[in-house]
Amino acid sequence: MNKSIQAWCEQQIVAMKVQFEDAIEVRTVKIHERLEVLAERITDLNVRFEEEKVRIPADIERRGRELAEMLRLFQEEFNVEKRERLEREARIEKQLDDHEHEVAGKFEVERTEREKRYIELARIIETNEKSRIKADGKFQEVVKEELQSLHNQIHIEAQVREREDDEIVEALNRYTAKLQSSLKIINSTNT
């Protein structure tokens, strides 16, 4: 039995060895194919690098010339712009000075006019104040007179009402006296 297990194990080992060698062979073929593709890619990259070695310095040189030209044009435009800006600033500064003098003159005229108007208004206010004081004095006198007149009228009215009240009381007293005398007469005839 040991021999048969050993034979069977040896067969399995041989079969696995064959299978392993086949797998290694397949992988070796695939690796060789990949290496060939990789070698082609490396060759292509080397060709591209060689092309880029030539193209990049030429491109850098061309762009350097373009940049130098752009810088020269920019410098010229900058100088022109600077000159024009200085001229504009000078014109603006002159306009500002002219406007400042004009505004200062108008301000002085306006200040003088306002001072005149202030003096005139102060005079009008003073005149109105005096007139108002006089009118207030007259008004107070009229009010005092009216109040005195009303006070007198109230006093007279109070005296008249008092007299009328006294007359009404007297009339009631007389009426009461007559009523009592009439009752005495009536009472004396009944007895």
UniProtKB/TrEMBL annotation:
<dbReference type="GO" id="GO:0005874">
    <property type="term" value="C:microtubule"/>
</dbReference>
<dbReference type="Pfam" id="PF06705">
    <property type="entry name" value="SF-assemblin"/>
</dbReference>
<keyword id="KW-0175">Coiled coil</keyword>
<protein>
    <recommendedName>
        <fullName>SF-assemblin</fullName>
    </recommendedName>
</protein>
<comment type="similarity">
    <text>Belongs to the SF-assemblin family.</text>
</comment>
<keyword id="KW-0493">Microtubule</keyword>
<keyword id="KW-0206">Cytoskeleton</keyword>
<keyword id="KW-0963">Cytoplasm</keyword>
<dbReference type="InterPro" id="IPR008374">
    <property type="entry name" value="SF_assemblin/giardin_b"/>
</dbReference>
<dbReference type="GO" id="GO:0005200">
    <property type="term" value="F:structural constituent of cytoskeleton"/>
</dbReference>
